[in-house]
Structures are given as C-alpha cells and as structure tokens.
Specification:
Layout: E1 12-13, E2 15-18, H1 22-33, E3 38-41, E4 57-58, H2 70-86, E5 91-101, H3 108-121, E6 139-141, H4 143-149, E7 158-169, H5 172-185, E8 189-191, E9 194-203, E10 208-217, E11 222-228, E12 231-233, H6 239-247, E13 256-265, E14 273-277, E15 283-289, E16 292-296, E17 300-301, H7 313-326, E18 340-348, E19 363-367, E20 373-374, E21 376-381, H8 387-402, H9 424-434, H10 440-450, H11 454-463, H12 478-487, H13 493-500, H14 511-525, H15 529-543
Parallel strand pairs: 1-11, 2-3, 2-12, 3-8, 5-14, 10-20, 12-21
Antiparallel strand pairs: 4-7, 5-7, 6-7, 9-10, 10-11, 13-16, 13-17, 13-18, 14-15, 15-16, 19-21
Helix pairs in contact: 1-5, 1-8, 9-10, 11-12, 12-13, 12-14, 14-15
Length: about 550
Amino acid sequence: MNRFIENYDNTNFDLIVVGGGITGATVAYEAASRGLSVALLEKSDFASATSSATSKMIHGGLRYLSTFEFSLVRESLKERRVLMNIAPNFVHPAPFIFSVYKKDKVPNYKMKIGMLLYELFSFDKNKLWDKSRKMPNHQSISPERVIELVPGALKEGLVGGQLYYDCSSHSPERLTLAFIKSAVKYGALVANYAEVEDFVIEKNKKLKIIKGVKIIDKLRNEKLVVNGKMVINCAGPWADILLGKAREKHEDEILRRSEGIHFITKKLVEEYTFSGATPDGKHFFLVPYRNHTLIGTTDKEYIGKPDEYKVTKQAITELLDEVNQSFGEKEKIRYEEIVYAYGGLRPLVEDQTEDVYHSSRKYEITGEKKNGIAGLITVEGGKFTTSRMLAEKAVNKAIRILKMPKKKSISENSYIYGSEIKNFQQFIKEKQVQYPDFKPQHIEFLAKSYGTEIDKLFSLMNENTNLKTILNEDGENLAQVVYAIRFEMAKTLPDILMRRTGIGQLGHPGKNILEKTAQIAAKELNWDKDKMAEEIAKTEQLLQVP
C-alpha cells in the first residue's frame, strides 16, 4: 500500500470516501469490489479514533433488546456470523457470563426471556464456513457456578447468571486495516494523514454540486485537490463538522457524541468475559485480554470539539468506582494497577433520549439534496459489528444516485484480504509446524494478527535474523515493525505500536523495546535523531495513564 496523494494524477474518482475507520474502510471495500473507482482519505491514521476504542467484541447487542430494537439485534447477529466467515483470523467465538443480582434493575426472569430472544434472533449462528467454530447455545447457571467460573464475582445477592457466546475481536485496528487492504486489492487508492479541509463546489441556481475535496497532506504539508463524482462522509464523530463545510455553516454541529473509555489491568478473569450491572443499571465488561483484563465501557455524553478529546483521570476513576462496587469479592482494583487506558467518541444519530447510554446504535445514510447539495452522502451512527451491512446500503445508494449499472455485492460471501482460511485451527497447527523457532502460542497470536500474510512476515525474519527478536509474551517481534512500514503504510511510532501491532496496547513496553522499535522505524523512514526523539516522546505521552 502507498499513499496515492504523493503521486496523484488528477484522476476523477467515482467515489471519495472520507474517514479511515471501520465505516470508511468497509464502504471503500464495498464500492471498489463492485467496480467503482474509489479514493479513501483519512486525516490521521487508519482506525486511530473510534474504531480502536472498542471493547474488542463483535456482538449482537444483548442490551438493545431492552429498548425493543429487535431489527438491530437481528442485523447485528447476522453480521456477527458474516464476520466470523469472512474474517476467521480476527473474529472468534467467546464465552460470556451475564451475572444477575437481587439489586439489578432487570430481574432474573427477564434476563432468561432476553436470552431466549437472543437465541431466537441468532437462529442461523452456526451456518459457518468453518464447521470447527460452532457457537454453543446459552444456558442459565446457578450462583455457585458463576463463582466457580469467575471467582472474583461478588457473592452477596447473586441470583445466578446466563452463560452464552458472542465473539471477540482479536484486533479491531488490524481488522479495519484488512478491509482497507481488501479495497486496495480491488483498485481503491488510499491515504492516511490526508485531511479534508473543504469541498470543491460547483454552484448552479438550485444546487451546490460536489466535485471533489480540498485536502492537506499532513506529512508533507502540501495542499491538493482530489476530484470525484461523489463523496461519502464516513468521518464518525467528525461527520457533522465535515458536513458543515459543505453547507458553509462551520458551526453547524448536529451529532451527539458519547464517550466510551476502557482500561487494562492485571488478570482478573480467565476464560470467561464477565458482565455485570452498575448501581444505576449500566453494564460493564471484564474481558480476558492477552493475559490481562480489559475493563469497560462508559457511555457518557461528550460536549466539546472531538479533536480535543482525551481520556481523563476523572473518567477512569468513575468507571473504576462503578466496577469496584459490583465486582471484586476479596480485593478491589486499585488505580495503580491500571497499565493502560484508552477512549473514543461514538457518533449517535438519536437525540430523543436524555441519557446517551439509552440512545440507539442504529445508523443513518442520508443524501444532502434536501439541503441543496448534490454529490454528498453522509453516514452517521452504527457500530463495528454492523459496518459491512451499513457499507452495502451506502454503496447501493451511491450507485442509484450516480445512475451506474447495478452490481451485486460480494462482501458477504468473500474472505477479506489475508483471511482466506477454511479451517482456522488447522491453519494454526500447520504454521506451528512450519515455524518451530517460535512457541506455539506465539504462532497462534501472529496467525490471528496476520492470517495468510504470516508467511510474508516470516520471510522478513529469514532475510534478517535480528528481526526475530521477541518483544512480549505474545511473540510480537521486530519483523512486524518493518512489515508495518513497508507494507502497511505506518508513518509514525504510534502507528506501529498501537495499530499495526499490539506492542503498546498493554501499556508501556519498556524503554529498551521502545528504543529498539524506534531505531528500526528511523532506519526505514529516514528519521534523524531529533525526529526519532520526537516520536519516542509522543509515544511516551500516549502510553501514560492520566
């Protein structure tokens, strides 16, 4: 992959996609795979905002049953199955325990009804290409069984629990990248660090007609125009701000934004994700994650400019206090035990609820003719799990407006790039035999991260044995740093540590590893000593717990 804007030849694209998160990635893939010429522009790095601030789940949305959003739950469960099929290295069945206490606002009998509905809506969950990945049915379990499986659960007032299966997302960042690579495979041109500053607008008596976008290449500090017949605004929490540029009302902000934070601490749960309810009825998760526990999430309205958002100590403390009230039989989680914290903003399309926690996670795809603008579609809302379906609908709309020949979507029935694996467990075993120098668990982790690209990664190690240096317990290594730069458009140290790899996702990896990584990046990207020091300092700040 290369940043096309460095050698742009004034191509007039059918579609310009603005935003390189999961929504923009799936839209670009959907459009390119149907024969449209596509440009994807991302102002920062791919999956650097909302798409990397997830609970690392692909799920049906059990709690949406309480708001009677049955169609959203059904769509989510169907798309969960689709992602298991098309991205088998990234999306895996995982056991969840939903605890029920006397104090909870939802009584046990309602939870049982809810689980029955959840099963009903996932009636086709085992229509999987890989038959070894069967999803078991749910079961109601006793308080004693809950404690046996999750010893840290509070005993007092525990009524029981629901044991069920949803899916874990191995790496939302790399899954987003895989969709971008899939788009590139079908001819899409992409660029990160390419910020859309304005639209190219042709005016007639009745309409403003979008003819392209004005961008700034943030790496080279150069401005240019990218031409296109239509723009799809997939800017997530920035969607309304981008829309305001087209309407020439720069203050016109219409989106509600919800803050969701997570933090990572020592291992508190083993195999099972534990879900409980806070005193005010909101749900939290303790997720097994790389020999640690990932805890989240919050759902609090954010007032302010999305560019200025950052995780605060107050937000972490609030989540920590809520979890400690509802989990930890023998000991509570201490702030000092938090190794890393991250957060992001979710764009919401509903403004009828006072509390954003109860706002819908539905999405909207709107054309702008009603506002006197032609050639612009805005996608707002949604969630990671349903992004492929959202993209299919958005591209259907674009094709209708552009009056292009209809072409059937292939995305539901095609592996994404690097995920062409019929039996994932067999694939892991084969790679463990093929690469005996690495521990079996290391190969499993790398197979999940790279899928069929793992051989290309190991070829780098064969060329330079120094790149075999292992950096953490998961087997992540220096070859990944080179791979990220040469093949995956990583341009900064945070790109490498936080999004192309997981080296920084468990907190500070240590000064030695940070410097080793930076030295290789400096060589590959031609950084001088000052630039390398700047990148290290930027990363150190990013990894700091507030």
